[in-house]
Design brief:
By secondary structure, the protein is of the alpha/beta class. The protein contains 8 helices and 6 strands. Strands 5-4-3-6 form a 4-stranded parallel β-sheet, with helices on both faces. The chain has a two-stranded antiparallel ribbon with strand order 1-2. The chain starts with a helix and ends with a helix. The relative contact order is 0.15. The mean pLDDT is about 95.
Length: about 170
């Protein structure tokens, strides 16, 4: 399916995305379903859908969290939406992404994408968003965070989908 066919098929959702997200970088990634990194196109195959993006964006708009944790990063779609909302609503703040496979399985594409959004707001709007990737399992990272009494305004869980891992992520969060 080419971009025109894709746009026509998903026009309603793509128009909603454009209306809420206001970021051409994110929009073009979703429209083309690929990312250009190091002069190579990487096809996406794992991400939250457009309605989930808008919901996540709306949560940040409404609650105005400034310290956000995401469990699972993959291609960075949810992280880009989070960073974009932090910038779009002039919140700044921080985003920590936990993903033990970010480097090896995902080739740091998630980190790359999120950092592009972070740099956009820093360079063009003087809004600072700190992004950190923790390359360890969520159970280890969350245990450390608990011991350090770290608190977050919003935690987005979309890491491992194995039942036990999800239970640990929810309980530790």
């Amino acid at each position: 399916m080419n971009e025109n066919e894709y746009y026509n098929k998903y026009k309603e959702q793509l128009d909603l995305l454009k209306k809420h997200i206001h970021n051409d970088y994110i929009y073009n990634i979703i429209l083309t379903y690929k990312v250009k990194k190091d002069n190579e196109y990487i096809k996406l195959h794992s991400n939250i859908n457009i309605y989930e993006m808008i919901f996540l964006h709306s949560m940040i708009k409404y609650f105005k969290p400034r310290k956000i944790l995401e469990i699972g990063c993959a291609y960075g779609i949810s992280g880009m939406v989070i960073a974009n909302a932090l910038g779009q609503y002039n919140l700044g703040g921080s985003l920590i992404s936990i993903d033990p496979y970010q480097e090896k399985q995902w080739s740091n594409v998630g980190k790359y994408n999120i950092n592009n959004v972070v740099e956009y707001y820093k360079n063009l709007h003087n809004i600072y968003i700190q992004h950190t990737v923790l390359y360890e399992s969520s159970s280890i990272a969350l245990t450390k965070m608990y011991k350090n009494n770290e608190k977050y305004d919003l935690i987005f869980i979309d890491g491992s989908h194995a039942l036990l891992d999800v239970i640990v992520d929810v309980f530790c969060s």
